[in-house]
Write a structure and sequence with these properties.
Blueprint (H helix, E strand, L loop, with lengths): L2 E2 L14 H13 L10 E6 L5 E5 L16 E8 L7 H4 L5 H9 L3 H22 L9 E2 L4 E5 L6 E9 L2 E7 L3 E6 L11 H16 L6 E2 L10 E5 L5 E7 L6 E6 L5 E5 L9 E3 L1
Parallel strand pairs: 2-10, 3-14, 3-15, 4-14
Antiparallel strand pairs: 1-10, 2-11, 4-8, 5-6, 6-7, 7-8, 9-13, 11-12, 12-13
Helix pairs in contact: 3-4
Length: 281
């Protein structure tokens, strides 16, 4: 039987500033009388899609030459430690917008503040290279949950950007279509008996939930439990989505959901031993 899962809270680079407001809003909502909800149509799998071509690029301060603005079917993935920056910290600090600097200043957690700044600096560097402009000139449209959009200043092409916390890593995904990243990292207090399959299923569902902005979706768990690294799902009124497992080390499980088929992935910062079906850049 299909099982409706509550939207997961993915491991993400968040500022945490709005937690009190969120708790208050949840309390207010709980006090209101329950409203009838429309039933959600069941999602079903379409097909186990073909594995996309992975192109591996080393992570250096020199932007990879072959990584251009993603076209339909292309996905860019970046993985780096939060200490890594493409330029010295003093130079990158001026790249941030006034709003980003204010969020960083007000962040109550110094470790997460550092991750937020690092993620935004690297994101601006990536987009500046894609759009051939200065990092400080990049206009990032932010929804407050690390899902960003940017539009090319000359030809109007748009890209969607998602950022996820992956333990010691930060992962950035970029595509021309809507996407959602989710990473499941073992942590104290987590279910000790959770199997790798269970973690992978959570990562896949979390990527769908994040891409849909946490809309309730009735998904048969069996559809998220297959061995195939990529599959296509028909989510009824939510449309067709493609879910791809990301190669991660150890017990970390990650997935990305996109609103289009994926034929090629440019993976920057992944060891070749982790990237399946890869070809060297």
């Amino acid at each position: 039987m299909p099982l409706e899962l509550a939207p997961l809270a993915p491991s993400r680079v968040r500022d945490g500033i709005g937690s009190q407001a969120t708790n208050s809003a949840n309390a207010l909502q709980a006090a209101q009388p329950a409203q009838p909800t429309q039933p959600v149509r069941t999602a079903h799998a379409i097909v186990s899609a073909a594995l996309p071509q992975f192109v591996s690029h080393p992570l250096t301060r020199h932007y990879p030459r072959r990584v251009a603005v993603p076209r339909a079917g292309e996905l860019h993935l970046w993985r780096f430690r939060c200490e890594w920056l493409p330029v010295p910290a003093q130079e990158s600090d001026v790249w941030l917008s006034k709003g980003e600097r204010e969020r960083a200043r007000l962040h109550p957690n110094s470790a997460l503040r550092k991750r937020f700044v690092s993620a935004r600096v690297v994101t601006r560097w990536i987009v500046a290279n894609l759009f051939d402009c200065e990092p400080r000139a990049v206009d990032l449209q932010d929804d407050g949950n690390e899902k960003l959009r940017a539009r090319h200043p000359h030809d109007g092409r748009g890209i969607t950007i998602d950022i996820a916390d992956a333990g010691i890593w930060i992962v950035i995904g970029i595509a021309s279509a809507t996407l959602g990243l989710n990473v499941v990292v073992p942590s104290p207090g987590a279910a000790l008996d959770e199997t790798p399959e269970g973690s992978r299923r959570r990562a896949r569902y979390g990527s769908l939930s994040n891409a849909l902005r946490y809309a309730p979706v009735d998904v048969d768990l069996d559809l998220l439990s297959g061995d195939a690294a990529v599959c296509a799902l028909d989510l009824a009124e939510h449309g067709r989505w493609h879910v791809l497992d990301l190669p991660m080390s150890g017990k970390i499980r990650a997935a990305v959901a996109l609103a289009q088929p994926v034929t090629q992935v440019h993976a920057v910062g992944w060891p070749k031993a982790l990237v399946f079906g890869e070809s060297s850049a």
